[in-house]
Design goal:
This protein is mainly beta. The protein has one domain (8-109): Hypothetical Protein Aq_1857, Chain: A (Sandwich), CATH 2.60.300. The protein is 13% helix and 43% strand. It is built from 1 helix and 9 strands. The chain has a 6-stranded mixed β-sheet with strand order 4-5-2-3-9-8. A 3-stranded mixed β-sheet has the order 1-6-7. It is globular, with a radius of gyration of 14 Å.
Length: 110
């Protein structure tokens, strides 16, 4: 029997959120959600948003990442990270629950 753990946020992702807040002059929470659709069945929705009453709030040094209760089971044991590659810099989800994903990294199947 495996242990169910909530997603975790890397230090690099929290650091990037702090940089964005400093550059913009306002602190916004990053929402990570899972929606139906995309080329593989599910897709990530990563955007800045305000917290809802039933969100899981992952917080460090005043920076917040939000996950709604419907998306939470799809993100069990996942890692929310920030990466800078030749194709650009972006927040990414390293999700052990995804059985496959598309090349863009936004869509996945389970």
């Amino acid at each position: 029997m495996s242990i169910t753990l909530p997603p975790r946020v890397s230090d690099r992702a929290f650091q990037r959120l702090a940089e964005i807040a400093q550059e913009s002059g306002e602190v916004k929470a990053l929402r990570v959600a899972v929606d139906g659709g995309g080329c593989s069945g599910f897709q990530y929705d990563i955007r800045f948003d305000d917290p809802a009453a039933d969100d899981l709030v992952l917080e460090k040094a005043g920076q917040k990442v939000l996950v709604d209760p419907i998306s939470l089971p799809f993100l069990e044991n996942a890692v929310i990270d920030f990466t800078e590659e030749l194709i650009g810099a972006r927040f990414v989800i390293n999700n052990p629950n995804a059985s496959s994903s598309c090349g863009c990294g936004i869509s996945f199947s389970m």
